[in-house]
Amino acid sequence: MSYRRLIVNLDAVAYLRQARGRGEPDPVTAAAIARLAGSDGVNLQLRGDRRHTQDRDVRLMRQTVERGLSINIEPIPDLLKVVLEVRPDSVVMAPEAPLDVAQHGGLDVAAQLPALAEIVRSLRDSKISCSFLLAADLEQVKAAHRVGAESVRIQTGRFAEDGPDRKSEFERISDAARLAVKLGMQVSVGGGLGLSDVRALCEIAAIQEFVVGSSLTARAVMLGFERAVGEYREILR
Question: CA 154 to CA 187: how far, in whole Å?
Fold first, then answer.
């Protein structure tokens, strides 16, 4: 099996910090541990209401994470301004769920082609890679390619639920990933992934990167953050 990149999503760490109303656990510290433990990068979602990740988090992380920093944002001016100032390695355009619930879908790129193409150009001018969080939908993959995205992140929340549609969702993810690679884009997957989900999706050769967050953080509560990262890293070697 070829090497697959592991990206640790730290939203759950930021959620715990905000729930406590104090400074711990600090996602900036978690990012440093994740990188030392073998992750290829870290990811955060900066929301419009800042209810989890704060501007302070992404600014400090840019100073401490030398490479592999990605930030998810809804494509709105306030958030675009922050990422253009912080200059992460990549930005993932994603819809923002109104509540803290698992997302199953992705951004509707096809419905806003001109606006998103302009955003992609502005990010590229700032040497920031742009990706889109998409449902496993071929038309959305084609739309992402049309606006100039360098990569796509396929939403895996429905697959990770392990319901009756798991097999058909696996096929949809596989088809979307293969099309994206054919169009010259990189492919990552993320959304609710646990250890068994990552093992299963490793069968899809077109997937080059796995983004894991809540499940890893939950295991870290019992095992420690470094060991939890190591478990996922071992699968993806």
Answer: 7
